Amino acid sequence: MTYTDKTLRGKVRLWKNHWVKQYLHFRVYQNPDPYKIALRQRPYRVLWMLSHMRSGSSLLTHILSANSEVMGYGETHIRYESPQDFKRLMCKVYWEGQEYRNVGDLPKLTLQETYILDKLLHDNKLLDTDLLLSPNIHILFLIREPQRTLNSIRDLKPDWSEEKTLNHYCNRLKTLVSYAEKIDAPERSLLICNDQLINESPLVFKSLQKFLDTKTEFTEKYQILKTTGAKHVGDHRGKIMAGQIVRTQRELKQTVSPASIDQAQVVYQDCLQRLSQLSTAINDM
Fold it and tell me: Is the model's pLDDT at 171 over the cut of 50?
């Protein structure tokens, strides 16, 4: 292949990317309604996964995204200040979460999914909690017990002290409770625990289908996305590249003290109880 060929191919790729971005921008922003786009009558529903670090959120994201009615890929890192930020979410998810390489990819531009997915793992992403009151937003709360979670956070961030790790986890659980109290609408929020996702998968999948009212079923197999394993998007240390649920846990090099685990357990149990009261639980579906 000559240098000229590479240059021509590069120019074609740049033109294609520009065209796709312009098309997405037109479709999304032509309609001023934050949940609607041009050439489509029904509004989108926003699906927010509200969770914490090392909760299994990357796995659940892939399971959700494998459903033809859900479009998402991981953390977009959008800071939500107004309903218009959902426009940014639509553009980013369709651009970052899809491959547009050839003519066979054109059907992806029909933009027919029901849900646009984002996962929020940190307190600085949801700047206006009044957005939680919108009937167009559906919430998945995903939480995980402290022992494995704290060890996994420290394994991911070995420069964090045990105290910082503990405070981060506990504060995030308390924030999730405050979100649920703000929503106070069990019909729009579903609570999932990590151990349920791993050990009671069929029940979780049936509950998801009922909660989201999708025609397509959820399964434990999923597609590897172009963003799978990418840093700052989702899990890049676990077994997410397997394309299905892996139930064996990897060995962690970091641990926290029993005292920290006991302290976190109290906060976790309170979070679990409150979220169960304020949201729909898997066992209630």
Answer: yes
